[in-house]
């Protein structure tokens, strides 16, 4: 059993444990994270400390999280506090008789060195990592216990409710979890229950598959909102498991949340080169004079610098898709954000076939900076909602081959006729006919984990998050994505597979753009 903040409510906790054991049978141990003692613990605690009462199960607790509770822990390195109640210590590894390995870190993050008795510092975390990572054939630990949440744990995952995982918790704990790869990581202190989707510990197609990690935050004992504070689970020690069984990936596995924060931290450390100037940002007022552009000056930007020092690529010649370029057919632009814009496709497969494009010059998705990716994701969400309101789902594809500016082609198809399985089967069947091999990428994965910058590829993404990926190593049919969608199996528009056969006059293009703009307006976050 794992438990959140006890806050000195020992009778409530142990009463609940007895009830669970009476119904489900004996548990091996109880692991407590967060505040074990409360501000009014003394009366209840005295009965256990003196032996008048006894915990019904071997109980292991973490140390103090503030100065007021330090006195409850007489030996900083760990000790028995009462019969069946053990303080693990400031940091270390507890190995059970079964071979179960439990890493633990007591206290909250501190910038001071040495850290106060109720805190841990970067040095503490570094020493714990070193002691464990130096173990021969280290693969990870079975369980990690910390009181604070790891900062950024919610990236790529299900919502944590009212808890903002980008601001909550400890960066040092995130670093520790990333290195130790626990199969289960328990934390507390936020008075909330959050069971994150499992995340992977390897890069898809680049590293040998490893076990997944599960993060579970628990609420406080006896809380009025009835949030879950006890978590029961069964675990076979990693050392006793069949290797193939250990690395099995569940259906709902996501990308590793800490890789994102590590990348951002590395980019934040990179100095802005002297010759590198902030990129100009153009905005188009689509409600007034179509195509009029204005340069957002330093005053309007609030003199803010770009978040990253990632230098924009420069086109080799005139670019039809850089928004500031005179080559852009601006009457097709239907929405403009800060980093990306939407435009109707010229010679579109359908009248509402749109492109998501970065405003600056980037060749592919894997080259994008984090703020561009963030806005691109917003556009995908808005288009999903927009097309679903019309009884459609979108199919998105990118061809990073014989192109110099990223174009994400977004084509709506009927929901009732084109299921996810139908779409995937159509792409795979036509690929096999042309000796093209597709790999199915897990739903929550990041394309940057599969392709490096500069790698030619083609990938398809459904609005469910499912993806198919092909690494291009030789020739590749330029109209492949359109050909599949135009086939009889899906849209039954084979005559529109080549965009050059679908060109219309400017007046019709302008009318289609006005109609799309009008319909998309309620979903367009860029107008808010």
What can you see in these coordinates?
The chain is of the alpha/beta class. It has two domains: 2-262, 4-Layer Sandwich (Purple Acid Phosphatase, chain A, domain 2); 330-523, HIT family, subunit A, CATH 3.30.428. The protein has ten helices and 24 strands. The strands form five sheets. An eight-stranded antiparallel β-sheet has the order 17-18-19-21-20-23-24-22, sandwiched between helices. The chain has a six-stranded mixed β-sheet with strand order 4-5-3-2-1-14, with no helix packed on it. Strands 6-7-10-11-13-12 form a six-stranded mixed β-sheet, with helices on one face. Strand 2, helix 2 (42-49) and strand 3 form a beta-alpha-beta unit. Helix 3 (122-133) runs parallel beside helix 4.
Distance linking N and C termini: 47 Å
Strand content: 15-25%
- Count of alpha and pi helical runs: 10
CATH homology superfamily of the largest domain: Metallo-dependent phosphatases
Q: Into which percent range does the helicity of residues fall?
A: 10-25%
Highest-level CATH class of the largest domain: Alpha Beta
């Amino acid at each position: 059993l794992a438990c959140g903040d006890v806050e000195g409510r020992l009778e409530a906790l142990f009463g609940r444990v007895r009830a669970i054991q009476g119904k489900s049978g004996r548990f091996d141990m109880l692991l407590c994270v967060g505040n074990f003692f409360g501000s009014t613990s003394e009366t209840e605690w005295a009965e256990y400390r003196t032996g008048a009462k006894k915990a019904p199960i071997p109980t292991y607790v973490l140390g103090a999280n503030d100065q007021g509770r330090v006195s409850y822990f007489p030996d900083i390195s760990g000790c028995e506090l009462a019969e069946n109640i053990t303080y693990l210590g400031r940091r270390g590894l507890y190995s059970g008789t079964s071979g179960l390995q439990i890493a633990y870190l007591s206290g909250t993050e501190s910038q001071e060195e040495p850290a106060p008795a109720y805190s841990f510092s970067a040095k503490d975390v570094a020493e714990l990592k070193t002691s464990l990572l130096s173990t021969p054939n280290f693969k990870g630990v079975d369980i990690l216990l910390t009181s604070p949440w790891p900062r950024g744990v919610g990236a790529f995952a299900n919502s944590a409710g009212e808890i903002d995982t980008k601001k909550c918790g400890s960066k040092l704990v995130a670093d520790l979890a990333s290195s130790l790869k626990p199969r289960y990581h328990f934390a507390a202190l936020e008075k909330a229950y959050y069971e994150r989707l499992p995340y992977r510990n390897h890069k898809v197609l680049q590293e040998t598959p490893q076990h997944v990690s599960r993060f579970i935050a628990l609420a406080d004992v006896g809380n009025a909102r009835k949030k879950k504070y006890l978590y029961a689970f069964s675990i076979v020690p990693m050392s006793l498991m069949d290797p193939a069984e250990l690395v099995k990936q569940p259906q709902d596995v996501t990308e590793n949340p800490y890789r994102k924060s590590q990348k951002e931290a590395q980019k934040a450390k990179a100095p802005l080169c002297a010759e590198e100037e902030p990129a100009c940002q153009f905005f188009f007022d689509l409600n007034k004079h179509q195509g009029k552009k204005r340069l957002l000056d330093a005053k309007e930007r609030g003199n803010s610098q770009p978040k990253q020092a990632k230098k924009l690529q420069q086109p080799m010649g005139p670019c039809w898709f850089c928004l500031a370029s005179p080559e852009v057919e601006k009457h097709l632009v239907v929405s403009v954000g800060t980093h990306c814009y939407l435009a109707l496709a010229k010679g579109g497969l359908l009248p509402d076939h749109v492109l998501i494009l970065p405003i600056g010059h980037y060749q592919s998705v894997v080259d994008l900076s984090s703020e561009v990716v963030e806005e691109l994701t917003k556009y995908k969400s808005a288009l999903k909602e927009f097309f679903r309101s019309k009884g459609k789902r979108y199919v998105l594809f990118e061809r990073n081959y014989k192109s110099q500016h990223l174009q994400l082609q977004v084509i709506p198809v009927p929901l009732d006729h084109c299921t996810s399985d139908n779409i995937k089967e159509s792409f795979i069947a036509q690929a096999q006919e042309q000796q093209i091999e597709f790999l199915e990428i897990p739903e929550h994965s990041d394309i940057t984990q599969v392709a490096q910058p500069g790698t030619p590829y083609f990938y398809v993404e459904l609005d469910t998050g499912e993806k198919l990926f092909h690494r291009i190593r030789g020739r590749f049919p330029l109209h492949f994505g359109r050909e599949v969608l135009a086939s009889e199996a899906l849209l039954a528009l084979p005559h529109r597979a080549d965009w050059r056969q679908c060109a219309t006059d400017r007046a019709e293009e302008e009318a289609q753009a006005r109609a799309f703009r009008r319909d998309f307006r309620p979903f367009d976050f860029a107008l808010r």
